[in-house]
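step: validate -> pass
step: tokenize input -> pass
step: predict -> running
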Amino acid sequence: MAELKKLRSTLDSLPWIAQILLVLLFDPIYGAIYRLTRGDLFGLIVGVVFFLSGGFFGIGWIIDLVCVVFFKKITVLA
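step: predict -> pass
step: emit ->
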């Protein structure tokens, strides 16, 4: 559990431009890892579904990009 919190804080402390690049290039993987680091069952389920569906069929990709641009981090379902 402590490792997940450490990973989550590391992801949150990434520079803004790095988060944008990660979302643009690797969002199904990055978004799934970000959601998995919630540390609860809901985060596990959403992270796996997010990964397997390719970022909820591309819609999650757009939502994550908008969240990173405006809020500086992924906020929806995270």
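step: describe -> The two ends are 16 Å apart (CA to CA).
step: cleanup -> pass
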